[in-house]
Design goal:
Elements: E1 4-5, H1 7-36, H2 45-70, E2 72-73, E3 89-94, E4 99-105, E5 116-118, H3 122-127, E6 135-140, E7 143-153
Parallel strand pairs: 1-2, 4-5
Antiparallel strand pairs: 3-4, 3-7, 6-7
Helix pairs in contact: 1-2
């Protein structure tokens, strides 16, 4: 699994970690402390929920912290890329004239609706290192799909 990430996404993950650690977790700790001060904890719904929420937050912090330690920020793609590489936007057309455009990103950044697919996915692997006008075979659940790369860019095409 790729441990690369774009500089924009590492900033988002770091911001999320910082927000949870500095703002959300202290609020929950305070709420749990106040609920504990009310007495019997065994039947105190606020205390029980707060402790559960605190465990969820700690799991999220552990996950984010672990990922942030492993991830490496990829160099941005060249301004005018010649081959498909990490971070590039690639447009292609299939034999039926259907057009698609995706950015190849790391697994922490996947958002298919926004056109961001993993460089490790079958589509990403098929497109990697290809050039404009290359014919590419992509394996899909529906069978083999042949596409033609029409554009490679550092920024999302208009």
């Amino acid at each position: 699994m790729t441990s690369l990430i774009t500089s924009e996404e590492i900033k988002k993950l770091q911001h999320e970690f910082d927000y949870i650690w500095k703002i959300e977790r202290p609020k929950v700790v305070q709420a749990v402390s106040e609920a504990a001060a009310e007495g019997d904890r065994s039947e105190n719904a606020e205390y029980i929920y707060g402790k559960k929420r605190l465990r969820e937050i700690d799991r999220k912090l552990k996950h984010l912290g672990g990922r942030l330690k492993l991830l490496k920020v990829a160099a941005p793609p060249p301004v005018y890329p010649v081959v498909v590489s990490f971070g590039c936007w690639v447009s292609y057309e299939d034999e039926n004239g259907n057009k698609r455009c995706y950015q190849l990103v790391g697994p922490d950044e996947i958002d298919v609706a926004a056109g961001r697919i993993s460089v490790d996915s079958p589509v990403g692997q098929s497109l990697l290192h290809k050039r404009v006008d290359d014919e590419v075979s992509i394996r899909s659940p529906g069978g083999e799909l042949t596409v033609y790369i029409t554009e490679i860019s550092a920024a999302r095409p208009a």
